[in-house]
Predict the 3D structure of the following.
Amino acid sequence: MDRKPEQRPPSAEDAAPAIPDPDQSQPEPPERLPPLPKGALAEKLRWVIATEAIVERILYVSIVGFGLCLAGLMFTQVVLRYAFASPFVGIEELSLLFGAWFYFLGIAYVTRDGEHIHGGILTMVVRGPTGVQAVRLIVTVLGVGACAVFGYFAIKYALFEIQTGRLSSYMRWPKGLWSASLIFGFVGTTIYMVLQALHQFLDLQARLRTRTRR
C-alpha cells in the first residue's frame, strides 16, 4: 500500500503575500523649494538676496518685539486683575494691536522660510519629480492669486481706516495702527510667494532641459 507523501503547511514567509515597498517602487519626491534660491542661482540674484537679508532681519526683530510686548501685556493684566483687582481695559486693545502685528508679520516670515502648510497627497498621485514640481508651481501660482485677491480687500479696508482717522474705543489711538498690519502681512506674503513661484519655475525649467538632453 502506497503512502501519500506528507504535506507540510506553508511557512509564514511563503503564505504572506508580497507587499510592495512604496519606497522602492516610487522615487523620492523632490525637496520643497523655499522662495530664496541657493547655490549658483543665488549668485545670479545676489542683489535680491542681499536686500532680502535686511528685510528678514527687520521682520525677525519686529516679530520678537511684538511677541514680547504681547506676553508682557498679558502678564501685566493678570497681575492687575488678580493681585490688585483693578484691570486696565486698554490692555485688551493693545493686546489686539500687538497680536495683529505679530500674526500678520509671522505669516510673511513663515512663507519666507517655505514652512507654511502644504498638502502631502500630491506625491501619492503624481509620479516623477518633474511632475511633482510642475504641480507645486501651479499650486504656488494659485496661492499668489489668492493672496492678491484677499490682500486687495484687506489693504482696501486698511487704507479706509487710515484715511478716515477712526480712533479706538478706549485708548483713542488711530485704528489705522491695527489695520496697517494687514498691509505689511499680505504684501510680504505675496512677494515671498512670487519669489517661490520664480524659484520653482527655474527649477522646473532646468529639469525639463536635463530630460530633453537625455
